[in-house]
Input
Amino acid sequence: MAESERVPAERKRRRPTSSGVVLSADLIVDAACELIDAQGAQAFTVRRLGAALGADPSAVYRYFRNTEDLLLALADRLIGESMTGFTSTGDWAADLRDFGLRAYRSALRHPQIAVFSTVRVTGRPHEQHAVDTGIGLLLQAGFDEAAAVRHYHALVDTALGHAALDAGALRLTPAQRVADEQAWRNGYAGLPADEFPSLHRVREHLPAMAGSAVEPALDLLIAALRRAVEQPGA
Amino acid sequence: MAESERVPAERKRRRPTSSGVVLSADLIVDAACELIDAQGAQAFTVRRLGAALGADPSAVYRYFRNTEDLLLALADRLIGESMTGFTSTGDWAADLRDFGLRAYRSALRHPQIAVFSTVRVTGRPHEQHAVDTGIGLLLQAGFDEAAAVRHYHALVDTALGHAALDAGALRLTPAQRVADEQAWRNGYAGLPADEFPSLHRVREHLPAMAGSAVEPALDLLIAALRRAVEQPGA
DNA sequence: ATCTTGTGTCAACGGTGTTGACGTAACCTC
DNA sequence: GAGGTTACGTCAACACCGTTGACACAAGAT
Output
């Protein structure tokens, strides 16, 4: 259901574009990846993609039904990339942390795609393998089937949710980012103690709010899982 | 730094538009809210906003520097709305859960804005009060200043991250959503046992992946916090 | 009553995703 | 090799988008 329907899977008639490039779905995904990496997520448009390919923008629609379809294909490639090199160490908690961070980082690498890769089910091999691996870790930890699925869902969505969030921060201009940090440092740190007692008390630590919270969040989640598996009753 | 600079805070010359409406920053935010609620996040464009207001779209730029500026103002309103009615019960864990869910729900209610409201520091009263309340709960639980900030950050970003994620799902057409559910049910549930052993084992529970994972995630986080405060050494 | 000026309107610019018509070159058959 | 089909790259166009500068006019100040 993913990209087919317009793509007969195997191409025969492969005509080079006016600039000599022979298009293919893979090549288009390549170009989209490079474009986003080099110019940022904002730079991704079908027209620019066409220019990068040395082809008319509308040629893309011979391979993908629309941009969402293309981003979906890109998403599955990312999932695959993020999992290459992943090996189970036997310590399921450590592996799960690695697993989550890999998902986070790959989603963060291409902010534009982060949403798609998580919201839609690509149903492709890379995704399927990743899910199988992740759920395998939780089964290995000792959770029953229902709990493994539930916890996997919580963990992955948390990692990807943070990615979606932090991706937004990357889109800010340097000036905006500095302004936000200053807001935590000055605007918040100087609030009156009587109206904002808690903020006043923790004022020294507020600049820490400017960074990402993935690792603390993942650590808390995994700590809870470790505890749940040790004391199933609690 | 928020919306001013173009807005002199107090308007004197208030001329009605051609359709008789008297514009104001508040009214524009109102209209933007309604527009997104009624038609979905996709429907939000400056032009449509103008139409909804009964004014020329460009009139919006008399009140906000650009769309981001407008969405920022909307963000702070949402934070305020989400916290109205929140009262501390004395059970910090339950309160924190409520706090997180309120953040999640208000962000989810307006998906388009979810990213902005979390990525940027609005530095406005509503935001400041919410942060004070949340950190207060963690201090009350017994965490020291640094831990309270760290845990608050993890909790809020997790709630909002899930909102950002689930918001994407809302943008799908009903047909797409059905397709995704079917993918979990059929595409995944029928995979071969030898290549996907773990997926095969949990196949009955996979449809649960279609929903949101906020609550499981928040529950895990809070369980970890509860444990951390009981056994500070662990 | 006159002047200033805030502000709503209009037209325009340069961008976007997407589509339908069209021709040509690449395969298949003979 | 010749001819026919047709896949696919190209082109032009459509309907949108955010944003801006010029302009007219009415509201408030004098």
